[in-house]
Structure formats: structure tokens, C-alpha cells
Specification:
Shape of chain B: globular
Distance between the termini of chain B: 7 Å
Radius of gyration of chain B: 17 Å
Helix content of chain A: 25-40%
Strand order of the largest sheet of chain A: 20-22-19-23-21-24-25
Radius of gyration of chain A: 29 Å
Largest sheet of chain B: 9 strands, mixed
CATH superfamily of chain B: Class I glutamine amidotransferase (GATase) domain
Order of helices and strands of chain B: EHEHEHHEHEEEEHEEEH
CATH topology of chain B: Rossmann fold
Oligomer: heterodimer
Helix content of chain B: 10-25%
Structural class of chain A: alpha+beta
Structural class of chain B: alpha/beta
Distance between the termini of chain A: 43 Å
Number of strands of chain B: 11
Number of domains of chain B: 1
């Protein structure tokens, strides 16, 4: 029996969400509905009596103060046209799941597996909205047809109960494929049709493996033969995917530089990233680096008792298809990485950095691309729900805009954790699995959602991109699981843990089994969301909220009963062995039997060529000085990359857990832009953590070497500006590139690979110079969109995320001017480097010199700035980046509610003379800071030999006055400047 | 010494800082207790003098904030007994004990019918902010000096963060008159000078009469949307780098509670 329960807001109350929707419809679609009402619909498919349903609706689903409930009702009266949006079969319906469990509590009994609650929303419209217009509203705003259905009803129409039940009628089967009989073309088309994302060499390696007589003999004992099973093939494809194996970063590359000189690089990862970290580790001679590159996340030392864990992931492709679900899954996914590092860390902060196209984009969109505003909306909300509901503060982030992110938005999600150095006497960062330990999967169940996520993200977005690659995360299931795992960890019930992310069980158990030397998985034991999944689907599904743990048999009863108590599903699905094989069974029959060595090491090495054959040669630019400079400053302040992101920041809880010290918004009015976040993670100590980042893809159009150096410098500068100590910092590298492999559809692949090589060279040079090791990282290499003749590639983008230890959080500082009459200083050398700057972007000019990073000067300067801040001499400090000196000084002024008088002539400067350079150049390694007049002598002595100078003073009026050669260049009211800075994204 | 219970589990997020706040305020014994410990009967409310219902997203707030928790308290039976959690809670609040619900905890106490009157009848609600969105921002709060509320004794104005999407206080006219007349409206959103205002963003959610927190008739049961446990160190203040912050406002609330129990 099924019922439709509708929850309507009382007329006098109204659903406030309706008001927001009405505004969106007016702003974005230029339609003007007179009134909208939104009701929640629960379709309950369970054998319940009329009386029971009545009580459920009344007591569980309805808030009697503001809502009314209706059972199997007609459409709400008084409206003209209606739209209902619900999930397609099989799509995670968190509210439906919660409703079912609440019904069970209410009834005091469990419902059957197939009894379900499905939720949908009913939008009722007043006014002259036509059916066609409503369809536009559905497709442009309310419904994503990949995961949702919509229906339109007209006044008086009868509503049919619709149940989006998954019905899979196929027989469970294991396909066996004879690769021996296939030629290259057939092998490739097999790879393509099954979305394996394996190239011909890889397909041939698998074919060869099955040509081995000894292997076939062993397989026969297991009931298999010379044919590969689909379970095996899919498992190999996941394990060998770019996403899991980082094939490009491990490839041997012949690199030809701008002069055609050849250099052979054996693995970018080992040559540059790992090598730098190892050198820094050796030099440090302390225990700062605890675990790097070996686990799900990097681990560094915090104090004598605790370690810190940090990781950043991307979730780009899923966010392009379903921005909300993709981003939500991104954040809860990286949470699991940290939860699954060592024996598991407690999650203490999130970061997020997004790259979008202009949300006000007006041109026609290529097929299958969602409007950037919708991506923006969905991603922001997805991360909001993922972070807020999990109780993890989002403390740092940014948004970068460039219209090439139309093809694929970038969604970087990061998480930090803390764990005791020792748990039950064992080092917490070490996992250990013994032969015979049980494989336990806990958390969510397995469905078809997220099948081929790993291989899908290793491909460009194209016509056949599967909808099943999209998942929707469920933060509450994960929160319950995390609560349970912290207790299990401290009770010592498991000895290894990892998350089920890309590649599902195939990857998690596959990786863990290397520690014991083998595994045996009984796929039929895995709990499913619904019947009808084939064994290979169970193995590679990326359904969310799952962790795999290894449990000694003696602990299993305790563990399972603890799980029941915490309402977490935990299931034994096999055991770890030392057989040397990755062994899967289904109903007792072997369905996969692969040597671990082949699975993990059988992947043929990739050989690639990189040519830096088209380097940027500085194009001279001609700067007119007749500009209204004040107006330029205003335009810069309101440009997308510089403007206030307050409307997004406030949607994220940045204070939960009560550790907040420097918040994302700061200053006199709590709305100035902080350079970094600072938190104190322990209740009984003022020791803290600084978190910042650097990202500047705009420089990739000139040279990715500089881009990489500038991104790192920006991250470090941001951390130093609040009082970070360069001696106690570590970073993460996240590369998002456009396809760097040459092919017919990608003719400039070799150049893009050269750009990647150069970014890595800079990473090596500068992390080493700064002594800041990369402790973990990730790459996403196919951020292209190809549809027919249209190809959009993202600019090569590298994010450096930085974590640093602060000895005493009370000795940190913010950017806002504090007192009138204080000296204003600039530190760092300004040059005529405008290439890629926001100023030239505003004028739509390509050219100029690209900023370079002088690490020798910077290291010395950063140490001294740190000292000046922690000694309390600096009263405000801000790094100079996007928009140059002009934007930075304006931000400091309006954040502090004070004016300033500046003389540009005093800025230490090198290059062609023009005040526009001094104002808007984005040279690296620079800060503006303030200090009391009486400190001037001390500061002058202390910074002797470094490029620095006083440039003016703070004033108690509301004006920013900038002079050059005795002429006033800019005189603007700081609150007007602030309005320009705030208005752009305020309503989004 | 009086024992304090901080509830945890199923989406509660602020249990650690709530415990921390109580300890800083002088509490000697604070247990973080998972809801399942209560339903299993391992822990009983009668052993405690103070309960904190901390903030979070109980059950994801999927059916409306804290609704599922209300349902759990009212219908789940304590293991091997015929008692429901709400029966224990009812006994607890009838005695000379203290309870504070913060954010999601306030939503729970209101929807469970503990506030404004502990008789298990829902008289008020907290619903979506007028802005239609979740917001994290600091707010000024005027304390009703005539209120019997134990937690705000001697306080006049507070500065604390709100972090919610469903914080708009709403009730029917009679209830409103009752709680206003009885001085049960403890906290109201205000401007920098602590004058009550309905203006956004001072009143961040559009609450009726700018109500941010209420207590029961005895003043022992208190619920509020802002987060006192998020301001227990001077460095939690958003402007500590530019203003002198002496005693954190959030801590004062917990100190009042602990002093009462002494």
C-alpha cells in the first residue's frame, strides 16, 4: 500500500525558501511568478494502516505550529500550475531514509527492506506562468535530469502516486571474456565500451597475463579458465586508472626544453615532489615529518602528544554533472581520507577552493554544460551541507574565476585531522594487517551509484559520460560512522582502516591486502541498497560513506555490537590472507583470482614526450596614464577574483568545535578578508595551526614554472601575514591539468605536458628553497570538455594548500588597520610585472612581464615578518596579491574603518617608471604592514638590507589618499570602495 | 559535586566544546553521553544535575531541525523497560536540575515541548531563517534582567555567534503573550548598543520579537540559538586582535550554571 503525504506551510507563515526561489526565477530567468508555495511530499510505500499514516504525518512529518499535513491530497487550491521534482530510482534520498527510520522508531518495529519512503518537492505557482516557462524553471533551476524527474500538473489535475523504485530484473551473472581472440582494435573498443579507460598497452598487458600457462593452470583449480572475468577486468581497470595509479606522474618523459635540449625524467612524482620532501626531511633532523606519501593523507607532528593529518582532493567531473551531489561527495570523501589515515584521525577543519566560470555568463552554452551560476549554487550548497552537517568547520577557501572552467569546474575539498601520536601504545600512523584478519565494511550500503567514478574521472567529459558516475553523499550516515570509529579505534578493535572512495572495495581491499599479502572477499556478503547488482558492480561501486577496516577475529563480536549500538551497519565480507592473491568469491564460486603483484605492479609504464616549443615571449605593453585611477581601483575591487566572497563564507560554519582564532572574515565590521585561518585544536593549550593556500592559474598562460612558484609563494605569504613561521610549515600539491597526452583530438598534448614538467620543476626548486615539504597531493589530469567540434580546456591549475604550526595563537595578527596615526610599510620589491595581473585582465590586455619569485630574499623577509608579528610590533599585516598594492591597501583600510595617506614614490621599485606598475603589479613576496611610530627605528634596523620602506600613515578620516610625485592619484571614500568590493557576489 | 551530562551522537556536533566550556566554568565531572547509552539504559538522567543539548544537525535535520530526535525521545523505549527517554527527561526537569539547549538543542527542547513549558506539548517552533539560508555570524543579545533564567543571572548584554539555517522563533499569539509577560524571553537580538531590533542582520533570522532564547517558568530550563560554547577563550572573539576581550561572554553562561549547582 502506498500513500502520498503532503506537508504544506500555513498561509500566514510561508516557506522562506519560496521567497529565495522567486528571486532566482526573476533574476536569472526573467519570469515573474506572483507567488510560490513549496510543500514537502513523502511517498510512503509500506503496508501501513490509514490510522498509522495519519499519526506518522501528524507527529513525525509535520510541525504543527507552522505546517498542515494532507494525506493523498489534491493539488493545493488557489494556484494555477504545479511542478513536482523528485529523485530518479536508485538516487540517494537522505530525507527518505531518515523518514523511514523515524517511522520505525515511532511504530516500535522494523519495516521490510523493500518498504521505502521517497521524497519530492511540490512547487505551486500563482501568476501567468505557462507550461513551457515552467519547463524552463524545472530544467534551469530545480531539476537535474541526470538524477531527478519532474512533472508538471495543471489546476484541477488528479495526482497519481509515483514510486521511483529500483527494479533490476537481470539475472546475476559473471561474464567471461576471451582477450586472446581479440585484435588491438577489438581490445580498444572493449576498453571504451566498458568505460575501462585502459589504453592499448594496458589491454595488451592483461591479454599477455592470461597467456601464461602456469597462471591458467592455477586459475583452473579455482574454476576459472583462460578467459578473464568481468570482475577481474573491472578490478584491474580501477586499480590501473589514472585516478588511482597516477600514470602520468609516474611516466618516463622525454622533455625537450625551449632550446630543444632533451632531458629524460623518470617519474615527475619521484624526481621532483618526493625528492624535494626527502631532502627537506633529511635536513630538518627532527620528527616534523611523520608519514608522507604512503597513506591516504600526509602526517606531521603537532606537539609531543599529537600529530596532524592533512589532505586535499578534487571532485571535478562529478561536480560538472551534478554540482550539488558532486561537491557534497567531494567534501565527505576527503573527510574519509583523513579518517582513514593511520588508525584514523579526528576531523578538525575543512578547506575548499573552487574554480568556476563567470556566474553572470551571458553567451550560449555548449551542449550538456550547466550554467556556471548553477554550478556555483550547487557546489557551494553541496560543500555547505557536507561540512556543516558533519560538524567540521570550514576555515579557509577561495573562488577563482576564468571562463575556461565552463568545461569543467574545479572543486578542491580539503580536510585536516588530529590524532594522538600513540594509541594503545602503538604509533597511530602505522597500519598493520595480519593473515586471518577479517575484512569489515562499515557505513553505507552498496548501490549502482558511483560505478566507474575512478575511470570516469580519468576521461574528458563526453556524450556517453555515465549518470551512474554521480553519487550523493549522506553526511549523517558518515557522522554516525565517524563517531563509532573513534570509539572502536580507542578500544583497539581494528588494526587498519581505509576509505572506500574511487574504485570502491576493489581499491580499498586491494590496497590493504598488500599489507597481509592477499585477500578473500565474499561479494555476496556485502550489504546492498537493492537487489540485482552483478558481482563486478558490487566490487567497484563507489557508493558513499563506507570505510573498510581490518579486524582480528577475537575482536569481531565486540566491534559488531559497538556498531549496532551506534546505529552503524558493519559487515564481515571476507578475510585478509597471505595467499598472494586478490581473490573474490560470489556464493562460494571464485569470480576473480589475480596475483596481487600483477594487480598492483603489472601496469606497463607510460612513456611520454613533452615539448616546450611555444614559450611566452614578453609582449611589450603601452600604459596610458590618463586613466581615472580611482575608478580602476573600484572596478578591480568589484572584479570576480578580488571581490568579497562573504555570501559564501557565511554559509559555512567556520566556528563549530570552538577552536576558531582567526576567522575568514575579520576587522572592525567582521567583514574584511583574512589572509589565513588560525585555530587552536586543544582545549588546554594555546598552540595552534595556520591554514592557507595559493592558486593562480592566470599565470599559466605565460609560464607554468612561474605559476607554480607564485602559487607556493602566495600560500606561504598568506600564512606569514597572520604570524606563521616558515620553519614549521608543510604543504599539499593538487594539480588539475588539461589532457597532457598527445592524440588526434589533443594535438598540443606535448606542450601541455611540458607545462606540467615546468610546474614540477618550480615545485622542486621552491619547496626546497623555502624548506616547506609537500606531504601529500593529488592530480586530476583530464579536465577537458569535448563535444563535437567544441573543446574547452581548463588553464593548468596548481593548488598549494599549506598547514603550519603556531606556537602561541595569541601572537597572531589580522589585516585590518587598528589605529590612526600609525606608520604603513611595504616589504618586498615591486617590479614592472603586470603579465597575468588583474589590472591587465580588466583592460583585456595580454602581455607584459610575468612575476618571478626571489626565494633567497623572501625566506629572510618571511622569518623577520614572523618575528615582528609574534613580538607584537606589527599591528596589521596583509599580503599583496590579486590587484597589487592598490587593492591590498584598500582592503586594509575598509576592514579597519580607517583612512590612509600613501606616497607611491616611497615603494621600493625596479623597472619602467609608471605609477600604474607601482599600484597594480602583482610581484611576489610582498606585504603591507602597520606599526606604531615609536617602533620605526627598531623596524628600520631589523629589516636592514631587505627591500622595505615606510609608504604612509593611517588616518582617522574615511579616505584612502594615494599620491605620486606630489599629485593625488586616488582619493576615495573607503566605504564606497568597500561597497564596490562587496556588491558583486552579495546576492548570489 | 554535581555531575553534568553533555548529549552526543546521531548528528550532534558540539559536544566536545560544550564539555570544555563546562570544565572551564568549574565543573568537576562532565560526561559526554551518546544517545544510545541512554536508550540502552547504561546511563540514566537521574544521575545528573545538568544536561546540555548541544548544537549540531540531529539526523541531518532531514525532517525539520531536531524532529527525529523528538520522535526518538517520545517513542523509543529504554532497553528492557517500558519507559521512554522522555519520561526520564520529564522527571529530570521536574526536579531542581538545569538543562540548556543550544541551537539544535534549543530546537529539540522547543519541539519536544520542554520549552517554554515542560509538559511535552509543542507551543513554539524554530523554522527557516527569513534569508532562506544558513549563516554564521556574531550577534548582539540583550538579556532580560527580569527573567528568572539561571544561566543569564547578572548579565546584561552578550556577544555570541549564531550558526544556523533554521533559527526563526515562531509561536502563536497566546504563547507569545505568555512568555513575554512571564519574562521567559531571556535573549533578544539587538544592535551594538544592545537595543532590541528586528533589522537584519542584527536579527539574523527574522525571529518573532527578535527572540533568540527563552526559558521555562522556573528559569532552570534554557534554550538559545546562539552558541555560548563557541566563545570561551578571548581569542574566539572575532575582533580580539583589535579589542580588549576580558571574560568571554559564553563562559559567563556556563559559570552561572555551575555556580547555581554548587
Amino acid at each position: 500500500m502506498s500513500y502520498r503525504v503532503e506537508i504544506r506551510y500555513k498561509e500566514e507563515v510561508k516557506n522562506p525558501l519560496a521567497k529565495g526561489l522567486r528571486r532566482k526565477i526573476t533574476d536569472f530567468l526573467h519570469l515573474t511568478p506572483v507567488d510560490i508555495q513549496i510543500s514537502d511530499v513523502f511517498t510512503i510505500d509500506a503496508p501501513l494502516s490509514k490510522n498509522e499514516i495519519e499519526n506518522i504525518a501528524k507527529i513525525i512529518l509535520c510541525d504543527p505550529i507552522i505546517q498542515d499535513y494532507f494525506i493523498n491530497p489534491n493539488l493545493p487550491p488557489g494556484y494555477n500550475i504545479y511542478l513536482e521534482v523528485g529523485f530518479l530510482p536508485g538516487v540517494t534520498d537522505n530525507v527518505g531514509k531518515t523518514a523511514k527510520s523515524a517511522i520505525e522508531t515511532f511504530l516500535g518495529k522494523k519495516l521490510k527492506e523493500q518498504d521505502k519512503v521517497y521524497t519530492s518537492k511540490l512547487y505551486s505557482f500563482k501568476g501567468s506562468i505557462t507550461e513551457k516557462e515552467l519547463k524552463t524553471i524545472a530544467l534551469e533551476l530545480l531539476c537535474n535530469p541526470l538524477i531527478e524527474y519532474y512533472r508538471i500538473y495543471k489546476k484541477g489535475q488528479k495526482v497519481q502516486i509515483y514510486i521511483p523504485k529500483v527494479t533490476l530484473k537481470n539475472d546475476i551473472l559473471v561474464e567471461k571474456i576471451d582477450l586472446n581472440s581479440m585484435n588491438d582494435e577489438e581490445l580498444l573498443s572493449l576498453s571504451k565500451n566498458r568505460l575501462l579507460a585502459l589504453n592499448i598497452d594496458e589491454m595488451k598487458a592483461i591479454k599477455n597475463f592470461l597467456n601464461n600457462k602456469k597462471i591458467i593452470q592455477l586459475r583452473k583449480k579455482q574454476g576459472l579458465d583462460h578467459r578473464i572475468t568481468d570482475v577481474e577486468l573491472e578490478s584491474i581497470a580501477q586499480t590501473w586508472s589514472e585516478h588511482c595509479k597516477h600514470k602520468i606522474f609516474n611516466a618516463t618523459i622525454d622533455y625537450y626544453d625551449e632550446n630543444g635540449r632533451k632531458e629524460t625524467i623518470k617519474s615527475l612524482f619521484k624526481t621532483y615532489i618526493k625528492a624535494s620532501t626527502e631532502k627537506i626531511g633529511k635536513k630538518r633532523k627532527d620528527n616534523f615529518l611523520v608519514s608522507v606519501f604512503v597513506d591516504n593523507a600526509g602526517v606531521i607532528s603537532f606537539d609531543e602528544k599529537y600529530n596532524l593529518v592533512f589532505k586535499v582532493e578534487t571532485h571535478n567531473s562529478p561536480s560538472a554533472l551534478d554540482p550539488y551531489g558532486g561537491a557534497l561527495t567531494g567534501i565527505v570523501g576527503v573527510n574519509r581520507d583523513v579518517l582513514g589515515t593511520g588508525l584514523g584521525a579526528r576531523l578538525i577543519f575543512n578547506t575548499d577552493i573552487f574554480c568556476f566560470a563567470d556566474p553572470f555568463y551571458k553567451e550560449k552554452l555548449p551542449p550538456r554544460i550547466l550554467h556556471p551560476r548553477r554550478i556555483y549554487d550547487g557546489v557551494v550548497t553541496g560543500v555547505e551541507h557536507g561540512g556543516n552537517k558533519s560538524g567540521i568547520p570550514t576555515i579557509n577557501g577561495s573562488i577563482v574565476f576564468d571562463n575556461r572552467f565552463l568545461g569543467k569546474p574545479l572543486v578542491y575539498c580539503g580536510t585536516g585531522g588530529i590524532m594522538p601520536k600513540e594509541i594503545n601504545g602503538n604509533p597511530s600512523h602505522i597500519k598493520k594487517i595480519n593473515n586471518g584478519d577479517l575484512i569489515v565494511m562499515c557505513g553505507g550500503r552498496i548501490g549502482k551509484d558511483g560505478i566507474h567514478g575512478a575511470t570516469f574521472s580519468s576521461e574528458e567529459l563526453h556524450e556517453g559520460s555515465p549518470a551512474t558516475a554521480v553519487q550523493i553523499g549522506d553526511p549523517i550516515t558518515q557522522k554516525k560512522m565517524a563517531d563509532f570509529l573513534y570509539i572502536a579505534r580507542d578500544m583497539g578493535l581494528y588494526n587498519a582502516i581505509t576509505d572506500n572512495g574511487a574504485g570502491g572495495l576493489s581499491s580499498s581491499v586491494g590496497e590493504m591486502s598488500q599489507m597481509s599479502g592477499g585477500c578473500e572477499i565474499e561479494l555476496d556478503k556485502a550489504p546492498l541498497k537493492y537487489e540485482g547488482l552483478n558481482p563486478w558492480e558490487i566490487l567497484v561501486s563507489e557508493s558513499q560513506e563506507r570505510m573498510t577496516i581490518s579486524v582480528p577475529p577475537d575482536n569481531i563480536e565486540k566491534l559488531l555490537s559497538l556498531a549496532r549500538k551506534y546505529d552503524v551497519e558493519a559487515t564481515v565480507i571476507g578475510r585478509f590472507t597471505n595467499s598472494g592473491y586478490f581473490h573474490c568469491l560470489y556464493n562460494g564460486k571464485t569470480v576473480a583470482f589475480l596475483p596481487l603483484d600483477f594487480l598492483h605492479n603489472g601496469l606497463p609504464e607510460m612513456k611520454l614526450t613533452a615539448r616546450y616549443n611555444n614559450p611566452y615571449k614578453p609582449i611589450p605593453i603601452l600604459l596610458k596614464t590618463k586613466h581615472n585611477t580611482g575608478l580602476i581601483l573600484k572596478k578591480l575591487l568589484s572584479s570576480l577574483n578580488i571581490c568579497s566572497k562573504e555570501s559564501v563564507v557565511r554559509k559555512y560554519d567556520h566556528e563549530v568545535q570552538g577552536m576558531s582564532v582567526i576567522k575568514p572574515l575579520t576587522g572592525l565590521f567582521n567583514d574584511g578578508p583574512s589572509d589565513s585561518a588560525v585555530i587552536k585544536p586543544l582545549p588546554d593549550s594555546y598552540k595552534g595551526i595556520v591554514v592557507s593556500h595559493g592558486i593562480c592559474p592566470k599565470f599559466s598562460d605565460y609560464d607554468t614554472y612561474n605559476m607554480s612558484a607564485l602559487a607556493l609563494d602566495e600560500a606561504v605569504r598568506n600564512a606569514v601575514a597572520v604570524g606563521g613561521n616558515i620553519n614549521n610549515m608543510a604543504c599539499l600539491d593538487n594539480f588539475c591539468w588539461c589532457d597532457p597526452i598527445k592524440s588526434e583530438k589533443n594535438p598540443d598534448g606535448e606542450f601541455k605536458l611540458a607545462q606540467l614538467v615546468r610546474a614540477n620543476k618550480a615545485l622542486y626548486d621552491y619547496t626546497l628553497d623555502y624548506g616547506i615539504p609537500c606531504i601529500s597531493g593529488k592530480d586530476s589530469m583530464k579536465n577537458d570538455y569535448i563535444m563535437g567540434d567544441i573543446k574547452i580546456s581548463i588553464p593548468p591549475t596548481l593548488l598549494f594548500s599549506l598547514i603550519g604550526i603556531i606556537d602561541d595563537v595569541r601572537k597572531t595578527q589580522t589585516l585590518d588597520f587598528k589605529n590612526p596615526g600609525e606608520n604603513i610599510y611595504i616589504a618586498g620589491l615591486t617590479k614592472d610585472e603586470l603579465a597575468g595581473s588583474e589590472f591587465l585582465n580588466l583592460l583585456k590586455i595580454r602581455g607584459g612581464k610575468i612575476p618571478t619569485v626571489n626565494s633567497t630574499v623572501n625566506v629572510e623577509l618571511y622569518k623577520k615578518i614572523y618575528k615582528l608579528i609574534s613580538d607584537g610590533i606589527i599591528s596589521a599585516c596583509h599580503d599583496i596579491s590579486d590587484g597589487g598594492f592598490g587593492v591590498a591597501i584598500a582592503e586594509m583600510a575598509f576592514s579597519g574603518g580607517l583612512g590612509a595617506k600613501i606616497d607611491l614614490e616611497n615603494i621600493p621599485y625596479e623597472g619602467e617608471e609608471n605609477y600604474l606598475y607601482r599600484l597594480f603589479s602583482e610581484s611576489a613576496g610582498r606585504f603591507i604592514f602597520t606599526a606604531k611610530r615609536e617602533s620605526h627605528k627598531f623596524i628600520t634596523n631589523f629589516l636592514k638590507g631587505l627591500p622595505f620602506s615606510p609608504v604612509g600613515a593611517t588616518t582617522d578620516n574615511d579616505f584612502l589618499e594615494i599620491r605620486y610625485k606630489n599629485k593625488v592619484i586616488i582619493k576615495e571614500n573607503i566605504y564606497i570602495l568597500k561597497e564596490f568590493w562587496q556588491k558583486t557576489l552579495r546576492e548570489l | 559535586m554535581a555531575k553534568c551530562l553533555v548529549l552526543a551522537g546521531f548528528g550532534i556536533n558540539c559536544e566536545l566544546e560544550s564539555r570544555n566550556a563546562l570544565i572551564l566554568a568549574g565543573a568537576k565531572s562532565v560526561d559526554i553521553v551518546h544517545i544510545s547509552e541512554l536508550t540502552e539504559g547504561n546511563k540514566r538522567l537521574k544521575d545528573y544535575k545538568l544536561i546540555v543539548f548541544p548544537g549540531g544537525f540531529l539526523d541531518g535535520d532531514d525532517l525539520g531541525s531536531a524532529k527525529v530526535q523528538v520522535n526518538r525521545f517520545k517513542y523509543a523505549k529504554i532497553k528492557d523497560t517500558q519507559k521512554r527517554l522522555v519520561d526520564d527527561l520529564f522527571e529530570f526537569v521536574a526536579k531542581d536540575n538545569l538543562a540548556i539547549g543550544i541551537c539544535n538543542g534549543f530546537q529539540f527542547m522547543t519541539k519536544a515541548g520542554i520549552l517554554p513549558k515542560p509538559d511535552l506539548v509543542q507551543r513554539a517552533t524554530l523554522t527557516f531563517n527569513d534569508s532562506g539560508k544558513f549563516e554564521d555570524r556574531w550577534v548582539y543579545l540583550k538579556v532580560n534582567k527580569k527573567s528568572k533564567c539561571v544561566f543569564t543571572k547578572g548579565l546584561e548584554g552578550l556577544y555570541l555567534p549564531v550558526r544556523h539555517g533554521e533559527g526563526k522563533f515562531f509561536c502563536e499569539h497566546d504563547t507569545l503573550t505568555n512568555i513575554m509577560d512571564n519574562y521567559q524571553v531571556v535573549l533578544q537580538y539587538a544592535d551594538e548598543s544592545y537595543n532590541v531590533t528586528a533589522e537584519y542582520p542584527y536579527n539574523p533570522n527574522g525571529s518573532l520579537r527578535s527572540i533568540a532564547g527563552i526559558c521555562d517558568n522556573s528559569g532552570r530550563l534554557f534554550g538559545l540559538m546562539p552558541h555560548p560554547e563557541a566563545f570561551i577563550y578571548p581569542v574566539n572573539h572575532p575582533r580580539w586582535t583589535r579589542e580588549d576581550v576580558t571574560e568571554p561572554d559564553g563562559l559567563k553562561i556556563f559559570k552561572n550554571a555551575i555556580n547555581y549547582l554548587r
